[in-house]
Fold this protein.
Amino acid sequence: MNNHSSFAVSTLPMPPCMSKLVKDNYKTTRKDLTSELIKLNTLITEFNKEKIQTMQVERVPRYHTWGLASTRILRSVGPRNLLEAMPSHAHQDWREDRPAKQLHLSNAVRLRMGKASVKYFEAIYGML
């Protein structure tokens, strides 16, 4: 067994056509999968925190907040919920123009995602 192997999973973005958040103001044309996406992303986050990993995989990029609008939350104690500071989608971050059709992040956001992935691998392999 290779003691230098680890496995990490990035969380999934939450496209407007599949999820509707608290302050989103549009009608969906598909089944709302928000709760399923939150459950899946929570399981991914917990998996990345397991102590069986030999590298710092808990620092893997978390894309579940990409394409969402954030607000400032004043909190003095306790951990934040997965989407506590993300009450709505940032529709300008998605390729399609109508929220009910928005499935793909824009090219600019996808480029940022790629850069975040490269930085993650540079960090865990000590290349920075």
